[in-house]
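Supplementary Methods S3. Input chains for the assembly prediction are listed below.
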Amino acid sequence: MKNFKLYIPVAVFAVLAVFMWQGLFLDTRTLPSVLIDRPLPEFELRSLEMGDRLLTTADLPDEPFILNIWGSYCLPCLQENPIFMSAKERGIIPIIGLNYKDRDDAARNWLDINGNPFDLNIIDDNGRYGIDLGVYGAPETFLVDANGVIRFKHIGVINYRIWEDEIMPAIAAIRAGGNS
Amino acid sequence: MIRRPQTLLLSLLLMTGLLFLVSPVQAQVDVYEFETTAQEQRFRQLSNEFRCPMCQNANLTSSPGGVAADLRREIYRMILEGQTDAEIEQFMLSRYGDFVLYRPRLTLQTVLLWFGPLLFLLLGAWVAWNIIRRSAENPASASGISASDTEDENNSGKDHAPAVVISSEERERLNRLLSDMPSAPTSDNTGR
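Predicted structure tokens for the full assembly:
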């Protein structure tokens, strides 16, 4: 009590140290998405597969699906492609591609060479739909539930650890939520 | 001895010059046609105010990122469509969140951010006021505290003033202060 003032600097230091220690591990590169729990924005866009017919949200699966933002120029997309290929082979979940700011021929070529894990590819060549999704660079991956509501977002490359630890549990949570 | 301040001054000047040399702001050049100069000014102002989601510490004007160019294009489109600044800000917020604002909105989460500095200023003022008030109310105690330090100035001052008249209230305070200190120089105390 009588010398409590001596401990004020120590207390101030402790508080500052806690905050700054936390600051060391803050991830400032990935933005939290404001679109979580909001419906997938409407669109009317061409697809890589269906010629001139314009796709809308009505063309998307009626079950939970992955929406992957990718481009042939995007190296991390190449890295995560085998994970999506294996998910497609095992029939885990439909995967929709959003070909973001790419050229159609380059995108088709990329899929021919590296394998096509996508059930459908929406073309967003000028990045306008990407803005509606809050996308700021491929790759980004959304999980959309059966009602067309965005439930999860991962920014950056998906590796096996992220697939097992984050994506699969999120898919399971969405399926569990959809059934109840 | 004479050269040292000059070297210091020179190096300071050079360092200040470097600050201007490495100015990182470099506007990206878009070719947009505006109907009025007011529109163009709004475009520049808005592009300066929003933060590029990809490049993190650049605004839309200075960011070379692809998404920054797309967002500038959207701002241009919305200005030509006659949308207000508030509508454009809402457009950005509903897609990229508070992150894009360099001037964060005043919400429950940002109250501390906005008024934290004021809080610390008031805290500092309160501490300073307490110190000033104490030394003004009680000048003897202020000199008493510094006399217990071993600074030359105070020791010499003490030599010139052998008889210090202090009130009983002050003596009580002095005793309290000295008894609070575990290793206080007690020789001074007994001498009085």
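Confidence is low (pLDDT under 50) at residues 146-158 of chain B. The interface with chain A takes residues 53-54, 56, 65-67, 70-71, 74, 93-97, 99, 180 of chain B (CB under 8 Å).
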